Amino acid sequence: MLCASSQASDKVLAPSLEFSIKTFELPARRGKVEDVSIKTLRLVSVKGMSTKGLKRVNARLRSLEKEMLREAKLCRTSADGHPWGYEIAFEKIAVSKRYISAVFKKFMVCAGSPDIEKVALVFARSSGRWVPGVSLVKELFPPSVDVVASDWSDPERVKLDDHLTEKMIDDSKTAGIELDERCDFYLKTAYYMVWVDGQRLKFFPEFNQPMSICQKEYMIVPTADQRDF
């Protein structure tokens, strides 16, 4: 059972949006070293979004919270008596004309294996509809673009085709993001979490090695006729 350890007061990101955050912890078992912290998010109000839309968004956020708890419990089980940890930290909400993106940082060590990821949920700003990563990329790019969900049927993580991967690399370099040439193969084969940040799509690759020089936020800047989002 989760127990609340602290509660942040409602924070205003911009006049158009208000949200609240809570921190939950999984109680440690007697004599065990455990480190679990899960940030949960609720939208309070969004300019232009109906009450029904807010309920839709918060229902998906509650679902994510349950997924996090299940994963934390599995992490504890797989640790088999060894030190382990599971942390979900709220990072930001990004608001654009058509989308709202909630981004979390995730760090866990289960059975001695570190895993650093970001978790992003994207919603349609008008209706509160959840937009999985594959659907988001397909909404913003031509039908000729080939993008697929991850091998384990996770609709939030995407694998880009060669064209979009090259554009991501070029746009990231143009924006001043340093890319080591040793990362090329990794970037072309990785699965990414994706969200909308202003007039850019942000991509964060999965990687199970801490402090990798390849694991950073990348971006795609759509062309002028694709920027109405």
The percent range for helix content is 10-25%
What general form does the structure show? globular
Strand/helix succession:
EEEEHEEEHEEHHEEE
Structural class: alpha+beta
Radius of gyration: 18 Å
Low-pLDDT sequence parts: 1-15
Q: How large is the share of residues in beta strands?
A: 35-45%
Largest sheet, strands/sense/barrel: 7 strands, mixed
The CA-CA distance between the termini, in Å, is 40 Å
The count of DSSP E runs of length 2 or more, i.e. the number of strands, is: 12
Number of helices: 4
Q: Name the average pLDDT.
A: 80
What topology emerges from the helices and strands here?
Blueprint: E1 3-7, E2 11-14, E3 17-25, E4 34-46, H1 51-79, E5 84-95, E6 99-110, E7 113-124, H2 133-140, E8 147-149, E9 157-160, H3 162-174, H4 184-189, E10 192-197, E11 200-205, E12 218-220
Parallel strand pairs: 4-5
Antiparallel strand pairs: 1-3, 2-3, 3-4, 5-6, 6-7, 8-9, 9-10, 10-11, 11-12
